[in-house]
Design brief:
Elements: H1 38-55, E1 57-62, H2 64-80, E2 87-92, H3 95-108, E3 117-121, H4 125-131, H5 151-157, E4 158-159, E5 162-163, E6 166-167, E7 173-178, H6 179-184, H7 197-211, E8 216-218, H8 221-231, E9 237-238, E10 241-242, H9 248-262, E11 266-268, H10 272-280, E12 286-290, H11 294-297, E13 307-310, E14 330-334, H12 341-350, H13 356-366, H14 393-401, H15 413-430, H16 434-450
Parallel strand pairs: 1-2, 1-3, 8-11
Antiparallel strand pairs: 3-14, 4-5, 6-14, 7-12, 7-13, 9-10
Helix pairs in contact: 2-13, 8-9, 8-15, 15-16
Protein name: ABC transporter substrate-binding protein
Keywords: Signal
Pfam families: SBP_bac_1 (PF01547)
Amino acid sequence: MKKKVLSVLLAAAMTVSMLTGCGSKPAGNDVQSAAPSETSKETEAAAETTVSAEDETLTVWCWDPNFNVYAMKQAEKAYQVDHPNFKLDIQEKVYSDIETALITAAEAGDYSTLPDIFLMQDYSFHKNATNYPGIFTALDDCGIDFSQFSMGKLADSTVDGTHYGIPFDNGATIMAIRSDMVEAAGLKVEDFKDTTWSEFMELSKKVMAANDVPMLTCSGGSEIVIEMLQSAGASPMVDGKVSLVDNKALKKAIETYKQLIDEGIMADYTDWDQYIASMNKGTAAGVIQGCWIMSSIQAADDQAGKWAIVNMPKLDDVEGATNYANCGGASWAVSSNCKNTDLAFDFLNATFGADVDLYDDLLVNAGAIASYLPAAQSETYNEGNEFYGGQAVYKDIVEFAGHVPGIDYGAYYSDIRSALTDAITNVVQKNADIDTEIKNAQDTVEFNIAE
């Protein structure tokens, strides 16, 4: 089916509510008779129908009615085509409440309050699977072909080789640039594809000179530095130990970030609204961010046709460096309290694990870009988007996701990011020594881990 994908809203904000309960237990049938009457047979048949319907009910926790909740409702409809008795009890909960409920259940050793299926932010999987493994049902035997998903996304929900999540939304990093500003500098959008950071900076100076604005805007040093780190496949944790010191990719990423700021190529905003305004008002020629930033870019209707999307630059002189990273996203998990894992596995496999038509619908109607790589081959994903000058941006983004290296944060993503934020701030604002700040960051993370 052909659908026009114009200005698709993508979601990054995560708001929700929460609940308890899982699939219903089958009701028993105590009707006994050597020669049942027609009435008793009808009663038994009705009871069996009720049991069957209850057996095919799964409870789901997730957030955002226009994004994740909508996705589950559409998945339910798709699965009901061949399973008419199937039903989802979708309970909308803010993500912080979901995490609190999971941890409370784990610490109490009582998982009976958990749903069958829940949505978890990708960066929380390692922490929770390491500290509270009893929350999850392993998905290795669920029938899903995990090779059909982005490796970068899978790494976030795979712990010690065990899959705990089925990737949902796509967080592939994009470089969105103003094609009109690029052309004003006598350049083409294609010039910015597959560049190194040093090549990108030379091109950027031409764009800046022609338009009198920074080439990039960003919302904080640690985020883009972590994207640079991932693009090189350089894990900050190796064999369970913190690996920031002597991490060549990390040092190069911080050096690159400092150069971008020092030379005015990138403007760094601590205020989110100012960051978004710099794109919408044309006070920056581009941004590097997870693809969910597109919804904010597209809020400026007057800029339709003036944007394009390419992959991010790669680190110079770093072995294994690529032009691809991931920022943000969530994945579906099955809880240890699931009353019918076979049903949950089959439902997830048939929908989020295989249904390209479902992903087409979610793109058009919810702005959810798939992490399921075969979706890029659909007619919907290959349709040009007028806001981006007719570029088939969604096809390109799914293809970007397929190249993202997987890296390991262990259970300490928040600790690592916080420590790196402090290090980067000191390097940029106080001209502190990079090696010293990386060592301080490693000491901080190791101290927090030891507590």
